[in-house]
Amino acid sequence: MSRLLIFGLGYTATRIADALRSRGWQVDATGSAGNLAFGDDEAVRGALARATHVLSSVPPVEDSDPVLDRYGSALSGKWLGYLSSTGVYGDAAGAWVDEASPTGSGRRQARAECDARWLEAGARVFRLPGIYGPGRSAFDRVEARKAHRIDLPGQVFSRVHVADIVAGVVAAMATDAPAGAYNLSDDLPTSQNTVIEEACRLLGREAPPLQSIGAARLSPMARGFYAENRRVANGKAKRVLGWQPRFATYREGLAAIRARA
Fold it and tell me: Could you read off the pLDDT of 128-187 as tens digits, one per residue?
């Protein structure tokens, strides 16, 4: 029987767990919604001994990876997966990046180091751009009056619907895909302004005014988001995993979320 241990049962990993349970998998997980406490060595190592597959969605802590630091010695022989970030590529001035592009030059240096460590451990590393889905989309920002349109001509981002991440990870497990990095992103990098405008159109709301980045008074984290500009290519995941994003652009993704509201 296939058995998965998830480190960090957050927004995306919860949906991966649900998808695999529906397929008959046994799933254990750490985190507030999981059945294991990360620091309970005996329980976690027992679950690791039973697991056929291990997936981590735990981000770096103080420039290190908590899972590899604490339990790395118990991961040998397991199918390994890691949810990383396309932030590892840094700024590409709007150019396309793929899995062969350099990493570690951007603001996500700690993430890039953890990404590299998981690759060295033989993991399938899923590099994810901006994640959106039910309860976590442009609609929520518009409703909360936290949506911005920033005047940065040429600025684009890639994004991915959470359901497409689930499909990509499940495909990698089902096909026993080779270890390595996989970008899971949609087919249409575009500006955040365009996404906000589409969300407002679907809600019947007026779009927020166009502002300079200074006038918007963004948090340091949000300003960092706008400091990098890249388009993320997803060809490898399509070729190797047989994966196709169900929500190929933000339009299909937002429409599906709106239809469920």
Answer: 999 999 999 999 999 999 999 999 999 999 999 999 999 999 999 999 999 999 999 999
Rounded CA separation 91/88 (Å): 9
- Provide the angle, in degrees to the nearest 10, between the axes of the packed helices 250-260 and 192-203: 30
Helices (H), 86-186: 109-120, 138-143, 162-174
What are the structural domains of the chain? 78-260 (3.40.50.720)
| Residue 127 and residue 99 in contact, taking contact as beta carbons nearer than 8 Å | yes
Beta strands across the sheet bearing 124-128 = 26-29, 3-7, 53-56, 79-85, 124-128, 180-183
User: Going by C-beta distance under 8 Å and a sequence separation of 6 or more, which residues neighbour residue 60?
Assistant: 110, 111, 113, 114
Alpha-carbon torsion (30, 72, 78, 243), positive or negative: positive
Nearest-5° Cα angle at 194, 190 to 159 = 40
Element (H, E) at 130: strand 130-132
